[in-house]
């Protein structure tokens, strides 16, 4: 769907249908008919009055969520008609939420359907009497951000037979070409030569070669240097600690962190931000086989720390350990280092399937990250490290163990594991995002259809925007 910002009084804009946001039906021209149709001024309540060419949609608050859900609901109704264009008055509605809600809410992934939904050439005109520079920038950025989220969704939704580490590497190369980024791809020989035994072990039983992807955006006079690291498990069977059948389904989404990093890298130059950004992805498939790494193995990570493997399904942290070391060895004077991972089922249990768990050593930074997330339309909350949980990942035979000796606090112990691979100079600059809950949507919610949500993209870009 195409969205236009139109500088005209809405009554003068020709259109097949008008979308009207309603927070109270009192005194509306169509009050009686809306009441009879059971319409309520609530989220997801929508009515199409074909004769008077109106779509009424309810909303509760002039907040991002409510606006985005309302426009997504209205656009779905509009998409179900043959009308070519719709108009809506911006008024005092949040423009970013309007654009993103429309574009994220009308996302369809039908690559695997034999009959594709016809891509209708519909347009939405957002009408406003005076377009300011600020509004225009918000409008254009929101379109780019939505495209990046949908691109991330496309990658995550692609099945493991069609999307394996090499696929991820070629997509990274394509993104680099389109956006003028530097791109380096390393294979298993590099991992072996450079002591990345932790990451390399996870992918050993896969027929697909593991790939370490490094994209960088380096504008002149960058005011900050930021590193994004993503878990790119193109499939997580659990390895020899094999997942039960029901838990394995959806594990194509275990690459969501890596895909979010690629999505962010694809849009960064378009937003005109003067920051240097590196995107590093560990693309690996966790499989079983005669060559598989095993519970009982001891792995040596890039920083020399030894890791006792007690569960091959806690593989994401093994991949990230080496990727975090690689990032810090290759890139000096980092201002922020963020990692994104569908790391633990425990995070989903703890904070629910809508929310990202934010961890790290810097309270102030975590606060800023959570604030950016909420501002961007994503849900996030901080999870606290503590000294007792830190002790639960000690090992009798190696420096550290890849699982904790307690059943509780699994997302925090995973975060604490990663902390072992953050160098002293970067301790306060690091934030870990556990996106296991929101990255993949099994029951559609808000403007997220079934499947990948593109979690991480919007909140990170919002954080970037707020960097002073
Ligand atoms: N990829 C999973 C985590 C996950 C679970 C993501 C559910 C999305 C939805 C991760 O690799 C994993 O299997 N973690 C284990 C860790 C455990 C063995 C300590 C888990 O959460 O059960
Ligand atoms: Zn796993
Ligand atoms: Zn995993």
Q: Could you give the topology of this structure?
A:
Layout (H helix, E strand, L loop, with lengths): L1 E6 L9 E6 L8 H6 L9 E4 L4 E5 L5 H16 L5 E5 L5 H11 L17 E6 L4 H25 L7 H15 L2 E5 L1 H6 L3 H6 L8 E7 L7 E12 L8 H4 L7 H12 L8 E11 L11 E3 L5 E3 L7 H15 L5 E6 L3 H7 L3 E6 L2 H14 L2 E4 L4 H5 L8 E2 L8 H10 L10 E5 L5 E2 L9 E2 L4 H10 L2
Helix pairs in contact: 2-3, 3-4, 4-9, 5-9, 9-15, 10-14, 12-15
The structure holds ligand BES and zinc ion (2 copies).
Structure summarized in a few sentences:
The chain folds into two domains: 2-130, Leucine Aminopeptidase, subunit E, domain 1; 147-465, Zn peptidases (Aminopeptidase). The protein has 15 helices and 19 strands.
Can you give a write-up of this model?
The chain is of the alpha/beta class. It has 2 domains: 2-130, 3-Layer(aba) Sandwich (Leucine Aminopeptidase, subunit E, domain 1), CATH 3.40.220; 147-465, Zn peptidases (Aminopeptidase). 35% of the residues lie in helices and 21% in strands. The protein contains 15 helices and 19 strands. The protein has helices spanning 31-36, 64-79, 95-105, 133-157, 165-179, 188-193, 197-202, 245-248, 256-267, 316-330, 345-351, 363-376, 387-391, 410-419, 457-466; strands at residues 2-7, 17-22, 46-49, 54-58, 85-89, 123-128, 182-186, 211-217, 225-236, 276-286, 298-300, 306-308, 336-341, 355-360, 379-382, 400-401, 430-434, 440-441, 451-452. The chain has an 8-stranded mixed sheet, with helices on both faces. A 6-stranded mixed sheet has the order 1-6-5-2-4-3, with helices on one face. A 3-stranded mixed sheet has the order 11-12-16. Helix 5 packs parallel to helix 9. The longest helix is centred in the first third of the chain and has 25 residues, at 133-157. The protein is elongated, with a radius of gyration of 23 Å. The mean pLDDT is 97.
